[in-house]
Amino acid sequence: MAVQGLAIDTDSVKVPRIDELYELDPYLKDHDREIRRRYGCLKQMLENIESDHGGLDSSSQSYKEWGLHRSPDGGIICKEWLPAAKAVYLKGDSNDWRPDEHAFTDAGYGQWVLKLPPKGDGSSPIAHKSIVKLSIVTQDGSTIERVLPRCRYTYQDPDTKLFQSVFWDPPAEDKYKPVNPRPSKNEGRSLRIYEAHVGIASWEGKVSSYDHFTDHVLPRIKKQGYNAVQLMAIMEHAFYASFGYQVTSFFAPSSRYGTPEELKRLIDTAHGMGMRVFLDVVHSHAAKNVLDGLNQFDGSGACYFHDGGRGLHSLWDSRLFDYNSWEVLRFLVSNLRYWLDEYLFDGFRFDGVTSMIYHHHGIGTGFSGGYHEYFGLGVDTESLTYLTLANYMIHKTVPEAITIAEDVSGMPALCLPPDMGGIGFDYRLAMAIPDKWIKLLKEFKDDDWNMGDIVWTLINRRHGEQTVCYAESHDQALVGDKTLAFWLMDAEMYTNMSCLSHHTPVIDRGIALHKMIRLLTHGLGGEAWLNFIGNEFGHPEWLDFPRPGNGNSYHYARRQWNVLDDDNLRYKFLNRFDAAMNNLDDRYGWLASPQAHVSAKHEDNKVIAFERARLLFLFNFHPTKSYTGYRVGVHLPGKYKIILDSDSEDFGGHKRLDHSTEFFTKADPWDDRQNHIEVYIPSRVAVVFARQEEIDSTAK
Asked: 10 Å Cβ neighbour count for 312?
């Protein structure tokens, strides 16, 4: 067992910076013993890795030892873990698929090793791009075939549609050699993430490629002002429509889009543009595929997973890892290290964290925020310890790496360092925010929007823990839901987005609110921003992968860049606003600043005002009323000017504000601020003001 939580003597556990944790949240003191126990579990695991497994650095690099490799003499060595196997063989193209020619040796503890000498000419007995398989004799004497768990490339058989493991060992001259260093965190004060799926990144109805993304999409992302790319569906998945969340081969980048070397070029090119690249990693579960996945790998119902009901996710119909097994930990931790070392990813978005850290997996469970939900028996200590170990290893290996947790529960200290009693993530996703916007658009008239409720949703996050905010992500783009643009404009996106026609009320409202919703979320909702590919310009239509239910069509599994590039269509206005918003944050850095001070959330006027990063943000959500001489409280005195206006003609607005106007503060308190300015704020308009001092000091 990797974790023996009940054996932890909590009284003897010293969490180095626990006082800092209690300064952030004094209520956590009531759970001091459990916080110490969790830290003790990590400490116990690290000590065991150091004493019995060669240390964390060596253990996390076990991907160099395990799996199929060419040995220094030109031969082959393969090492696999099959605790329930009676015999193991390697077969494939290289030996004409003879089933029992290459027999593994039982090395004990479920480990099996095969060594093959080089050919007479010194070349490898298994050639680059050869298809290989394991032939396994199970406990009942039957023989099964399996793909290699650590294969680095796959091939889909055109006849069977099964994915085969491929020995990826290109000659030195064909290996991609990176030329650009990883970007530093200091290269952008704020983190602005562009969430993308390589396969849908073309306007054509087909699976797009790594090379297309590198050459055609990365320049767009850079131009928009993003400084990080989050790649979905990279780990190989047999079912394309799973969006990459039913992983079958954890060490293989998806062959649908190209080769491993082409993915390396993509990442290196992004680094050359000053953008970091994050991998959407799925360690919360695995596909149930048997013939081309990890399920029943050694013929048993266990191996990498819990046996029985604990090893099954009832909602996702997938397998759940046994995080208390040393070999499973070795597999998963080395998987993370592999993507860091071999591909130079800059961090990870961990999918399904809520499912991992609770025994109920979040199924049929609502979280009230009561601390009993986070420190009771419902929490899975084993998976929580694994996540802490993973974060510890990642940041020890690449100190500037970023890890992001997809957690809806609000687990305290999730995004604090382990030595403070935390789990070690850098950010969590603000998953309640997009749900709030969709709920408003679906269920409420504009007149009934509650400004206080909107503000509360945007600022309701744990103090001292960083959050990635977003107005919508891939979840809202999928078939069955709608993007913000589609909820706002629906069928009129097909007929009334031409600049050659007059604004209809639907399009006018949709374009105005799309900009306001995104800016309000960007400015108030977190410490980093995320946008899903295409949403920056209000991508028309939903996202639906080819499947039997839609005739295996690729029509909706693409991004229609053509509507953005058509200068006669209004999508360009939303795209320009997105770029202006990002570039303004790059200049003033509000995402990297402390939380905003909200001075106004006026229900009757439908006005929200707040200050952040020495800027004033003002929003008028009223559908019909504009206000002249409207008082807005500000902390800092001086001369203010407009630096961003959603009603600008460049953004498809009505050009109702004069940008040459100078607003001088008056020393009369207003809305609990020492000063105020008086402005004109039109209906459905958002404006950002800056003092002349800030404009001058940030001028480039």
From this structure: 17
Handedness of CA 8, 9, 11, 14 (dihedral sign): negative
Q: Exposed, middle or buried by CB within 10 Å (0-12, 13-18, 19+), for 213?
A: buried
What does the pLDDT read at residue 2? 66
Closest to 621 measured CA to CA, from 680, 689, 525, 685: 685
Query: Which pLDDT belongs to residue 700?
Result: 65
d(CA 260, CA 240): 18
187-242: pLDDT as tens digits: 558 999 999 999 999 999 999 999 999 999 999 999 999 999 999 999 999 999 99
- Catalytic residue check, 406: yes
Listed residue (400, 385, 395, 398) closest to 417, CA to CA: 395
Two tokens at 282?
């799925």
Please, are residues 422 and 414 in contact by the beta-carbon 8 Å criterion? yes
CB 385 within 8 A of CB 3: yes
Round to whole Å and give the CA distance between 263 and 242: 20
Q: Which H helix or E strand runs over 77?
A: strand 76-81
The stretches in the chain having pLDDT less than 70 are 1-3, 5-6, 186-188, 479-480, 700
Q: At what angle do helices 505-524 and 571-588 cross, to 10 degrees?
A: 20
Residues 456 and 443: their CA atoms lie apart, in Å, by 18
Tokens 């909602």, residue?
315
In this prediction, residue 123 carries a pLDDT of 94
**Residue 532 tokens, joined:** 């899903």
CB 191 within 8 A of CB 593: no
Token pair in block for residue 322? 């046994």
**In contact, 165 and 249? CB cutoff 8 Å:** yes
Q: Could you tell me the end-to-end alpha-carbon distance of the chain, in angstroms, rounded to an integer? A: 57
DSSP string, 2-20: ---GGG--GGG---TTHHH
Catalytic site includes residue 11: no
Closest CA to 383 of 322, 326, 332, 337: 322
Note the pLDDT of residue 572. 98
How far is Cα of residue 353 from the mean position of the Cα atoms in its chain?
11
Whole-number Å distance between alpha carbons of 407 and 438: 19
685 burial level (CB within 10 Å; 0-12, 13-18, 19+): buried
- Residue-wise pLDDT for 96-149, tens only, equals 999 999 999 999 999 999 999 999 999 999 999 999 999 999 999 999 999 999
CA 475 to chain centroid: 12
Name the token pair of 468.
Answer: 């990635």
d(CA 291, CA 165) in angstroms, rounded, equals 11
Element (H, E) at 52: helix 32-52
Name the active-site residue from 351, 541, 611, 694.
Answer: 351
C-alpha span between 336 and 329 (Å, rounded) = 11
Which neighbouring-strand residues pair with 404? 349, 427
Question: Do 125 and 132 touch, CB atoms closer than 8 A?
Answer: no
CA distance 146 to 151: 11
* Residues ≥6 apart with Cβ < 8 Å to 68: 76, 77, 78, 90, 126, 132, 148, 150, 151, 167
The active-site residue, picked from 262, 327, 406, 536, is 406
The pLDDT value given to residue 188 = 57
User: What is the chain's Cα-based Rg?
Assistant: 27
